[in-house]
Amino acid sequence: MRVDVVTIFPDYLAALDLSLVGKARKAGLLDLRVHDLRDWTTDRHRTVDDTPFGGGAGMVMRPDVWGRALDDVLGSADDDAPGHLVVPTPSGEVFTQRHAEALAGEEHVVVACGRYEGIDARVVDRARAAGHRVSEFSIGDYVLNGGEVAALVMIEAFGRLLPGVVGNPHSLVEESHGAAGLLEYPVYTKPPAWEGLDVPDVLLSGHHARIERWRRDQALARTAARRPDMIAALDVAGLDKADLTVLAEQGWTVDSGRLRPVAE
Ligand code: JD8
């Protein structure tokens, strides 16, 4: 998979030299290229921004500079592997594990990192008009100063799903936001007793069926407490009697095939 990142702060992406993504790059599983947007400026001040039409605070990133950069990096839409343009923006669709799974299936992703008040809107319009798939994503309901941190988040999220990146692909299955649609259960390791706090006995029992049931109960209870929206989205057909018992204890009931909070 090829990933290009265009930014005025290339050093921000240095974190992707580390850890699993770093290893994936060295192993050739991920061809990640970071570009400085200023390489596509034409003036001696390497200007990338200008004042906003319609007035207002701050500066806007120029379309002409971004246009030249994306023409070079994104390539043309009728290439054999046309790039999928990803633009981090606080006004984007909220990025989820589903989006990460979809992007992990791409051959070529280009991430355009904005700064200032954002990128002139015609840059995305022109890429779409040229036939490129364009996704504008937000990583959450808070405001950052630019797109680089979001780029790090998204590239790690889909990069770790590439075959061979995560050592034991099985560990991808049981994760939060995975296929089960639940948050993860709590995890423990040695020592069995620490600061007067003991590891739950069931985990020391070696009784795999009981351990699996305990972990499922914990994941259900945790999800009900922290993410009721995820419980409401669960497919009832995928729940067994024990699941429904735990959810009932957490205030949920099945009503016309859907999970609903028991009316107060
Ligand atoms: C891209 C410029 C800063 C945003 C004026 C502060 C994503 N979840 C998210 N929060 N913020 C961003 C984000 C912020 C960005 C850019 C993404 C480019 N800014 C701007 C508008 C208000 N400044 C983000 N993904």
From TrEMBL:
Catalytic activity: guanosine(37) in tRNA + S-adenosyl-L-methionine = N(1)-methylguanosine(37) in tRNA + S-adenosyl-L-homocysteine + H(+)
UniProt keywords, alphabetically: Cytoplasm, Methyltransferase, S-adenosyl-L-methionine, Transferase, tRNA processing
Major site of localization recorded for this protein: cytoplasm
Enzyme Commission (EC) number: 2.1.1.228
InterPro entries recorded: Alpha/beta_knot_MTases, tRNA_m1G_MeTrfase_C_sf, tRNA_m1G_MeTrfase_TrmD, tRNA_m1G_MTases_N, tRNA_MeTrfase_TRMD/TRM10
Binding annotation for S-adenosyl-L-methionine: 114, 139-144
Protein's cellular compartments: Cytoplasm
A Pfam entry, by short name: tRNA_m1G_MT
Ranges for domain tRNA methyltransferase TRMD/TRM10-type: 1-231
Gene3D superfamilies per UniProt: 3.40.1280.10, tRNA(m1g37)methyltransferase, domain 2
Known function: Specifically methylates guanosine-37 in various tRNAs.
Stored HAMAP family: TrmD
Family according to the record: Belongs to the RNA methyltransferase TrmD family.
Assembly and interaction partners: Homodimer.
The protein, known as: tRNA (guanine-N(1)-)-methyltransferase
Lineage, highest ranks first: Bacteria, Bacillati, Actinomycetota, Actinomycetes, Micrococcales
